[in-house]
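Revision sheet: structure tokens.
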Amino acid sequence: MNIGRFLTLTIIALGLSTLPTVANAKVERKHASTAVQTIDKDHRIKERRGIVHTLPIRRGHKNVIVPRHRHVHKTIVVRRYGHAYLGYGGFYNDDDAWKWLAFTAITMKILDNLNEQAQREHEAAQIKATSAPVGEKITWNTQTSTGYVVATKQGKNESGQQCREFLQEVTVGGKTEQAYGTACLQPDGAWKIIS
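Predicted:
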């Protein structure tokens, strides 16, 4: 799978060199307690700690590290809080989700309290809010958490790009957190966070 020119393809020290495209796959997460080897685009071996994802393939599994900070299609992906995984919302790989990956920059500490399903529901609401009418709340809920995303303003920047300000709210265990961010739609169809 081509995760991006600038992304360091990270592979558990099993000597595996390729990763097949896995769309809409369930991902098993576990913390890596020891350093794992990674192979970057120049075939240099590095070591790092992180979240290990097991992606199902035809026969067996391959383990990959998904860094919390990476580049995909000229987009910086930063998952400071919550789960670190490939894709965004209902998209389970970066090649399908690249248009919305910049929204990982609008983050909240409360995401640490969500399970992966709830975090993906929140991200799916963010995707829907990019095209919903201004002021329309896109809500989501799971058994343990709720939230919404709403575009509060829309306009054009000095380059003529469509920009929107977003408000996000997440409630888990009676605690609520909000975050604002402004993003502009780029000529290639991706969103870029500007504040």
